[in-house]
From TrEMBL:
Keywords noted in UniProt: Cell membrane, Membrane, Transmembrane, Transmembrane helix, Transport
Name assigned to this protein: Multidrug efflux SMR transporter
Membrane topology: Multi-pass membrane protein
Transmembrane regions listed in the UniProt entry: 33-50, 57-76, 82-103
Lineage, opening ranks: Bacteria, Bacillati, Actinomycetota, Actinomycetes, Kitasatosporales
Pfam family, one: Multi_Drug_Res
Domain of life per record: Bacteria
Family indicated by similarity: Belongs to the drug/metabolite transporter (DMT) superfamily. Small multidrug resistance (SMR) (TC 2.A.7.1) family.
Compartments (UniProt record): Cell membrane
InterPro entries according to UniProt: EmrE-like, Small_drug/metabolite_transptr, Small_multidrug_res
Positions in coiled-coil regions: none
Length: 104
């Protein structure tokens, strides 16, 4: 259960990070609300997962999922360029996350 919550909270990290960028310094209401709700959910999920999982592993998985999904979303929407190198390095991050799960 802790791993599932951790993955969901990692996805919520991508939500709040993207909303933060779209809030334009908290001057736009809707993205600011999405940011606040996403941040609260992401942190609560991370805290819950850390009750059963090591702190270092939890944090690394949370950041890896969040960063990967944030970049993939930006590439899908055209906000960031797509390159073979970026895909390779994102794949390496995902491999590291999977490796941490396998080593747990």
């Amino acid at each position: 259960m802790a791993w599932l919550i951790l993955v969901i909270s990692g996805a919520l990290e991508a939500v709040w990070a993207t909303a933060l960028g779209k809030s334009e310094g908290f001057s736009r209401l809707a993205p600011t609300i999405v940011f606040a709700v996403g941040l609260a959910g992401s942190m609560a999920g991370l805290a819950f997962a850390m009750r059963d999982l090591p702190i270092g592993t939890s944090y690394a998985v949370w950041v890896g999922i969040g960063a990967t999904l944030t970049v993939l979303y930006a590439m899908a929407t055209g906000d960031e360029s797509v390159s073979a190198a970026k895909i390779l390095f994102l794949t390496m991050i995902v491999g590291g996350v999977v490796g941490l799960k396998a080593a747990h």
